[in-house]
């Protein structure tokens, strides 16, 4: 179902600047959408047309298939269903305290006082703002203001949340927190639309990308399709995502499987060729093409390492009694990822999980779980890009624990399961703690809905192969 549509939309400012020129879009409900385009390409103007702040000179805006009405009741209804978060939070935050600002929207909808109090407190909890509720918003940091602005919009419980450059001026951790929130809201069914110049973000985060230039829509589609047209991206004065540039350099050098479009670093890592060449001493009778069993070797293959070099094929023999072999490797110590719901934190249970799974990498996602972890004196080594970093760490034999809460628990579990399924890598994944069964159940339900197979949850094992040939294939 299309939640928002525009048909041949046109808009000019009073000074004659044509900011939107014949734009027709169809936005499916429940997706994560990015509008990308250089400064002045018309993104903000389009957003203001989508929530009825501006009335088009020509064309239509449709919400849920119905043309929007510009009457005051029509606009009130539209703004309840389509919330907008401005680029500059100071344009949005107007009340004397954080509490009053978040209460502003629900008050305009004539909710009862108790109802408003309930909604505002829910938002303050959700966004980790309780301790700031009586502060004047202009005394807050940029990241805090952004959370207040989003909370104010979310307090109206809109179906669609539009955010103009939501991550601009935020530090990397603050940006990651906002992204976590947007992912969680999307996971709960909301359509999220952002504008950004950050092609890396649009490429990695979105389900669908709209490319704008000079007030026109010049392309739309999956991020992989839109960003595969390098010339068009350049013509729109944007750059290719860094991960694609890097991948193409590896591809040219035959260091990665060609013809792919990795979306993030874990996907890129999966495409790297896993050939290891080593120079080793061999006996006089060893011939080219034969396999030698090298057992556990030094350096990467030392006893502390995660790999064991098994039957390795001799590629060439040297006069000095050495040979170059292509090492076939096997992971000795499997990486694992556990996910723990901080909502049901229990000190003893937590300590037991850390010990049982021999955890050596702990990451926290989302404001609430980070705060809870801090209160409990848990030492976090990663608080940004946690899912990707945990996957990468697990791939190198580490035993990772992701602390998170609320809807993020399922989102995290689903992303890891999807990665395991797509990559074919046998990483071990465990929802852990009291709510583990519930996480498992909900993730499975979501998997069923999205028609994907559920990967069987395997217990920690002693030896996993690493997706390369096993011993039988050689010799
Ligand atoms: N109030 C205004 N009066 C006249 N022209 C305007 C006004 N606001 C924006 N414009 C013009 O409309 C065009 C589109 O601007 P808009 O702000 O929508 O672009 P944008 O893609 O959001 O840019 P940015 O990425 O810099 O936020 C630009 O040419 C801009 O100069």
From TrEMBL:
Topology relative to the membrane: Peripheral membrane protein
InterPro entries cross-referenced by the UniProt entry: AAA+_ATPase, ABC_transporter-like_ATP-bd, ABC_transporter-like_CS, ABC_transpr_CbiO/EcfA_su, Co_trans_ATP-bd, ECF_ABC_transporter_ATP-bd, P-loop_NTPase
Keyword Nucleotide-binding included in the entry's annotation: yes
Positions of region (Disordered): 438-475
Cited SUPFAM superfamilies: P-loop containing nucleoside triphosphate hydrolases
One Gene Ontology term of the molecular function aspect: ATP binding
Translocase recorded as keyword: yes
Signal peptide: none
SMART domains: AAA (SM00382)
Protein family (similarity comment): Belongs to the ABC transporter superfamily.
NCBIfam families the UniProt entry points to: cbiO (TIGR01166)
Name of protein: ABC transporter ATP-binding protein
Protein species of origin: Methanolapillus africanus
């Amino acid at each position: 179902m299309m939640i928002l549509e525009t048909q041949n939309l046109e808009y000019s400012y009073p000074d004659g600047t044509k900011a939107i020129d014949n734009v027709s879009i169809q936005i499916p409900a429940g997706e994560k959408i990015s509008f990308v385009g250089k400064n002045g390409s018309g993104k903000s103007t389009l957003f203001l047309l989508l929530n009825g702040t501006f009335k088009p000179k020509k064309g239509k805006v449709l919400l849920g298939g119905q043309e929007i009405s510009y009457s005051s009741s029509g606009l009130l209804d539209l703004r309840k269903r389509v919330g907008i978060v401005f680029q500059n939070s100071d344009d949005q935050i107007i009340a004397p305290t954080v509490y009053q600002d978040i209460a502003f929207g629900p008050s305009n909808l004539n909710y009862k006082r108790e109802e408003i109090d309930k909604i505002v407190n829910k938002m303050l909890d959700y966004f980790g703002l309780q301790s700031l509720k009586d502060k004047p918003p202009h005394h807050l940091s940029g990241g805090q203001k952004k959370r207040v602005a989003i909370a104010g919009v979310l307090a109206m419980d809109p179906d669609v949340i539009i955010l103009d450059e939501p991550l601009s001026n935020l530090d990397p951790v603050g940006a990651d927190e906002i992204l976590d929130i947007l992912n969680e809201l999307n996971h709960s069914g909301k359509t999220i639309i952002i504008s950004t110049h950050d092609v890396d973000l649009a490429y990695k985060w979105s389900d669908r990308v709209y490319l704008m230039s000079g007030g026109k829509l010049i392309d739309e589609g999956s991020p992989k399709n839109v960003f595969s047209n390098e010339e068009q991206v350049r013509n729109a004065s944007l750059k290719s995502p860094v991960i694609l540039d890097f991948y193409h350099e590896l591809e040219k050098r035959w260091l990665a499987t060609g013809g792919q479009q990795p979306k993030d670093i874990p996907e890129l890592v999966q495409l790297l060729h896993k050939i290891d060449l080593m120079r080793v001493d061999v006996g006089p009778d060893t011939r080219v093409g034969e396999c030698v069993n090298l057992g556990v070797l030094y350096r990467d293959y030392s006893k502390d390492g995660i790999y064991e070099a098994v039957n390795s094929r001799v590629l060439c023999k040297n006069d000095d009694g050495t040979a170059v072999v292509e090492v076939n490797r096997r992971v000795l110590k499997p990486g694992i990822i556990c996910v723990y719901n901080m909502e049901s934190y229990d000190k003893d249970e937590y300590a037991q999980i850390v010990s049982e799974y021999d955890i050596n990498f702990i990451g926290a996602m989302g404001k609430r779980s980070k705060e809870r972890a801090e209160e409990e004196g848990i030492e976090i080594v990663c608080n940004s890009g946690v899912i990707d970093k945990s996957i990468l760490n697990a791939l190198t034999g580490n035993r990772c624990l992701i602390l998170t809460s609320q809807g993020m628990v399922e989102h995290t579990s689903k992303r890891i399961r999807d990665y395991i399924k797509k990559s074919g890598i046998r990483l071990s994944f465990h929802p852990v703690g009291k709510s583990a069964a519930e996480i498992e159940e909900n993730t499975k339900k979501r998997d069923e809905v999205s028609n994907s197979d559920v990967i069987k949850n395997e217990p920690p094992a002693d030896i996993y192969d690493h997706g390369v040939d096993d011993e039988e294939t050689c010799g």
